[in-house]
Amino acid sequence: MSIEINLSGKVALITGSSQGIGAQMARTFHRAGATVVINHPGLGSTGADAEKLAAELNAARPGSAVVCVANVADAEAVQRMMQEVKQRFGGIDFLVNNAAIIRDRTIAKMSSEEWQSVVDVNLTGVFHCCKFGLEVMRDGGAIVSLGSIAAIQGFFGQANYAAAKAGVQAMMRVLAREAARRGIRANAIAPGVIDTAMAATIPEKARAEMLKNVPLARLGSPEEVASVALFLCSPLAAYVSGQTIEVNGGWRG
Predict the structure, then answer these.
(1) So what's the pLDDT on residue 208?
(2) Residue 5 lies in a domain
(3) How does residue 92 score in pLDDT terms, banded at 50, 70 and 90?
């Protein structure tokens, strides 16, 4: 007997899903049958990328993907987005907090703005989406938030990013307790070094040093992270909550 993840009739909102891992998550949830809400912050090419992705998904299944613009650091914008989705679909079943930025610099050289901007998006943004997302989430839903290997390893120059991602992972442990009465599960994924545009900014020498710590001796793929998010939102993970799942090729540096 085969095992199939079928999310037909479910609605998944994925933040920061116009590009990279988020876009792959949108494709993966869509292939499983879910209607996908593609969120982007309205900066740079994110709007055009989101519309292109939505067109791709809707070509495969009409009416199965919509685009919502909201900077997750803006509480009012997030609240408006959640209410817009509720009016259109009646609510959401899954929330994937993927939106994130990096502003790497050593603590000695990091500006207050560089610290705050990362915390505002990567940590406070998750709080906003969980707070207002719970208002429109149907009972029995699931929340998955992206942590990071940086929260565990403490990479040089990533005090802001590591602190924010560690906070996200802790937040999911708390939320797992608070949302349990509604049958809503909350988990985090801590990816290792994933082959994305963000990873491409890592100098080749530094990347080679990182790979020495990975038993599988390669970068991870966005598809591999997306598959874990799909599992955590599926009935197969019905008894998994409050956990951080490391997707890092076995990194134990």
Answers:
(1) 85
(2) no
(3) very high
